[in-house]
Amino acid sequence: MSERLEDIAQAMVADGKGILAADESSGTIKKRFDSIGVTSTEENRRDYREMLFRADEAMKSCISGVILYDETIRQKAVDGTPLADLIKAAGSIPGIKVDAGAKPMAGFPGEKVTEGLDGLRERLQEYHKLGARFAKWRAVIDIAEGTPTWGCIKANAHALARYAALCQENGIVPIVEPEVLMDGPVATHDADRCYQVTEWTLNTVFDELFEQRVLLEGMILKPNMIVAGKNASSQAGAEEVAEKTVRCLKSCVPAAVPGIAFLSGGQSDEEATQHLSLMNELGPLPWKLTFSYGRALQAAALQAWGGKPENVAAAQRAFTHRARMNGLAATGRWTAELEKAA
Ligand code: 13P
């Protein structure tokens, strides 16, 4: 495969394909495993992820890349094959989460700033050797009374841009992820407030990317959709989410960016798919619109697996179904009938 940043970025958003976010940190994967009564041991984490990466049909036809966690990119399958090689064998690209998490921001009560720039160059060089050709850094912006503040948005946008520049210096495509949360501690805001904060955040992020000389053709944006907070008194309908999200992105994201791969953020599996499909139906658009889902791609497979080897085939079928539905959505061809026909 070509090593040019532009070519890697294009491959990440190839027609009908999207990204599997399987980069849950140790704390997050423990929560997921707790929900199915499975202990989060290194072996169980390996078995679960190996199950996903060996779901050949899903991986080959719908998954352009997989975001891994530090532990996973170093792990080997039961037969000794590195997990990153399983991904490559399926024609998909291994990626790596490189941020060190969102930490309380000094002087900004209730807000967070993502850490992880120190030593990042050296870590990127090692990850490149381990096979990673793209990376992810997630900033979180929470909406509540009086927040977000300019100081928090600016600090997070600056860190994202510094990260993106370092990735590109080392032959790695940065996924730039500024997530305006729908499931923060308050989360009573409506979709219009989400629009306002997302627009503010994205404009600030693209200013910083320009100042840090980031090549837009060699990056992928991973934003939230424009939705109301999960505790809001009224939720936006699917058409409204699609229309507002596309309008917001058109006003903030330069056409030089090859693709936008959404996070699911707490939406149900089917909502995340439907929203993506409706947005693609609003085309033509200047960039590809696809998925980089964690929960919305894995929830059904995780349930079906339940930590039992005898459930591997059923879990792979569940994952393949979601991957196929989202693959269709990435070209605006998903329908509720296809969802049920499976
Ligand atoms: P969700 O789709 O579960 O929000 O996860 C995507 C992700 O990678 C968040 O950083």
From TrEMBL:
Q: What is this protein called?
A: Fructose-bisphosphate aldolase
GO MF annotations in UniProt = fructose-bisphosphate aldolase activity
Query: Which leading EC class covers this enzyme?
Result: lyase
Q: Which domain of life is it from?
A: Bacteria
Q: Which Enzyme Commission number(s) are listed?
A: 4.1.2.13
Name its pathway. Answer: Carbohydrate degradation; glycolysis; D-glyceraldehyde 3-phosphate and glycerone phosphate from D-glucose: step 4/4
Question: Which source organism?
Answer: Microbaculum marinum
Give the matching PANTHER family.
FRUCTOSE-BISPHOSPHATE ALDOLASE (PTHR11627)
